Amino acid sequence: MSLVIDFENKVVLITGVSSGIGFGTAKEFAKAGANVVGCSRKPETDEHIIRFKQTVENEGVQVLYVQADVTKPKELEQLVEKTIQTFGRLDVLISNAGVNVFEGSGDCSEEKWEYNMELNLASHWRLAKLCRPFLAQSGEGVILLMTSNHAFSTIPGCFPYNVTKTAITGLVRSLAIEWGPDIRTVGLAPGFIDTPSNDTWFYSFPDAEAERQHTIDLHPVKRIGTTEEVGDVCVFLTSSKARFISGTTFLMDGGRSALMQDSF
Predict the structure, then answer these.
(1) Is 214 domain-assigned?
(2) Does a structural domain hold residue 155?
(3) What per-residue string of b and e applies to 36-75 under the rule 16 or more CB within 10 Å gives b?
(4) Which of 100, 87, 110 shows the shortest CA–CA distance to 16?
(5) What domain count does the chain have?
(6) In this structure, are strands 35-40 and 11-15 parallel, antiparallel, or unpaired?
(7) Are 101 and 145 in contact (CB under 8 A)?
(8) Catalytic choice (65, 115, 161, 203)
(9) C-alpha distances in angstroms, 78 versus 88, 148, 264?
(10) Under DSSP, is residue 151 helix (H, G, I), strand (E, B) or coil?
(11) Which of 37, 64, 107, 222 has its Cβ near the most Cβ atoms within 10 Å?
């Protein structure tokens, strides 16, 4: 018997859908039958947003796009308001939007610290609070907070990003124990995923292809992940198949953290 996950008639709100993990996750939820609400800072006429909307609609479900900067509380309020005005319900929140803020602990300015805290931590909490009453009404409301493998281990120069990603694991626990049983909260911590932001990282080195291969070699699975794979895990964790999972963050890193790096 095959495993079937059906989100028909459910509404999923995903932040940061213009590319990368957000886009891949939106695609997988649409395949599962969910109506998808997406946001990013890009205007609706941007080619990335046109692609997002077409991809979701091609699965025969409804799509709503709202331009919103998640660091601005008023725009988050408008995002949730438009979601409820359009669909009348909300079943799943995938709080995904974020940006690598790699400054180093000695060189990071107060401005970069504050920006990182607003974008990569506070926005998740604020949006979750706004969605809470509607998720509670769902009957199976779920919050998934996207963190990173940097929440579990990191490398030099990835401060203060790694600090907020670690803090999200605490936010997952708090929301799970304080907002349950009406709402489940889980976290997902992807490692190297094939995204434009990771391409930028590779191209910061003199030989991008060599650095990419070196990174691949650090993974026991001998490849890096795809956005669709992250989306598949999001679909499962927020489905009725995972009703006993709450308050924990799953590491999805191709086994990289299991390996002592000096073994190569």
Answers:
(1) no
(2) yes
(3) bbbbbebeeeeeebeebbebbeebebebbbbbbbbbebee
(4) 100
(5) 1
(6) parallel
(7) no
(8) 161
(9) 14, 27, 50
(10) helix
(11) 37
- C-alpha to C-alpha distance for 140 and 117, rounded to whole angstroms: 30
Q: Which of 239, 226, 185, 254 is nearest to 3 (CA)?
A: 239
Q: Is residue 61 part of a domain?
A: yes
Per-residue pLDDT, 199: 79
User: Residue 137: enclosing H or E segment and its boundaries?
Assistant: helix 123-138
Check pLDDT > 90 for residue 4: no
Q: Give the number of other CB atoms < 10 A from CB of residue 192.
A: 20
**87, two tokens:** 């669909």
Mean of pLDDT values over 103-119: 95
Q: Which residues contact 205 (CB under 8 A, 6 or more apart)?
A: 211
Q: Kindly report the CA angle at 119 between 113 and 122, in degrees rounded to 5?
A: 90
What is the pLDDT at residue 195?
A: 85
Element (H, E) at 100: none
Write out pLDDT tens, residues 71-99. 999 999 999 999 999 999 999 999 999 99
> Per the domain annotation, does 248 fall within a domain?
yes
CATH of residue 140: 3.40.50.720
pTM of the model: 0.95
Residue 161 designated active-site = yes
Beta bridge partners of 193: 225
Task: List strand residue ranges (DSSP E) for 27-182, in order.
Answer: 35-40, 63-67, 92-95, 141-146
